[in-house]
Structure prediction request, 502 residues.
Amino acid sequence: MMFMIRWVMVVLLIDLVCSGRVLWKMKERVREIQQTRVKQHMMMHTSTVIPKEGRIHQPLNHFDRKNTKTFPQRFFLNEVYWKRSDGPVFLYIGGEGPLSKFSVLFGHHVDMAERHGALLVALEHRFYGESINPDGLETEKLRDLSSQQALADLAAFHHYISQCFTLSHKNTWISFGGSYAGALSAWLRGKFPHLIYGAVASSAPVLAQLDFSSYNRVVGRSLMNEAVGGSKKCVAEVKQAFAAVEAGLLMGNEMEVGKDFGSCETPVKPDDKTELMQSLADVFMGSVQYNEQGVVFSIAELCDIMTNKSEAHKQEEPYDRLVQLVAMYRAREDAPCLDVSHEQLVFELSNTTTGRSSYRQWQYQTCTEFGFYETCEDESCLFSHLITLQSQAELCSRLFNISQSSLPFSVDFTNQYYGGNRPQTQRVLYVNGNIDPWAELSVVWNDTVVDNERVILIDGTAHCADMNSDKAWDRPALRHARKEIERRVAMWLKSAEWHLMI
Prediction:
């Protein structure tokens, strides 16, 4: 039964960096379903470990000592495996979404903590989940939301935990994170090397990029990869299908196209047409990004649908198969229709009450630090050329009064501050899957000068897959990667112990 629980945790332990509305709603829906299943199981098994939950009051602005305002930041603890006194501390870093108590109960880092006698701690990211003031989503308040402040939170949390448990330099800290939180893990080691001895950064986009056009190039390459169920035929069919949809929208057939894809409203306005194309593309992008992790379709399933030439379907055009695919997506996600209203999106993102969604906060961070806009303007993109940098970046000015002309400078500052994908830090392990589009912004090569053992690239694997516990159906390369990750972590712990003896 524990095996089943760890399968359920596939999505709960990782944060989804994304820009499309469908991708974001997909993430929240999956988290909701999976957490419900885990809660039901835990209610039936009273012997399950119950982690401790707490709050630490953090400064709203660590860099302005005149500002005395604070906010409550949530954290979780699991002491069950800890070898007290000298045992290590494994820090799980929360990202752009609510933190779950399962962050200290399940996952590969928890498996390693059990074997190495580590104290497990996890900190929720400021302005996400419950770690936010009631009025914290107003644009003026969001100025205190940044990766720099998040790292300062983690440093203060380190001090807090060290005091609570009377820790010393003998307790070696290792940080873990995936996606944006993976970047935070790497940056935490880089900015606070005296606090964090080693860091595992899974699928970590450490290179900020305004126009992330290479995302969709990797999506196309992965859909062509026969080792994971893709094919050249699949790519050709997808490209034809999207060309047909775009042609229909631009030639005055908006009502028919909207009806075919179950749109909540007819995409008449140019912005609504772009929203529809983005939503359709999101289904493919999400399937590639989380291939074989139980989210939407796998690449093999998706390509089977798009290339179905059986007797019953051989007369169908690629457009027809795309219509079927989207209908299946809506059924799986329990979505009565596909929301393609751009004004509705702006309205949702303008909501400053502290609801369950984290979309507004993450949108702000893309505008002020990272970009990460997954565009489709180059010829290699399978989807629609309506998905432009302009169509995505204009939200910055509409929502936060941040000029689009300032975005390149913000992205450049992030890369100057952290070092981009050429960091000069040691004992940071970058783990990526070679079909994950986010690997394009991570570190995927070793550096013999800085650290010749800093990269693990997993064949046939997607976003953050290494963070989950072993499953029977995992690819051999993924199982091997987890063993290699643990070998590196064990090596760091021995190295730290050796340094204490000098």
About this structure: The longest helix spans residues 476-501.
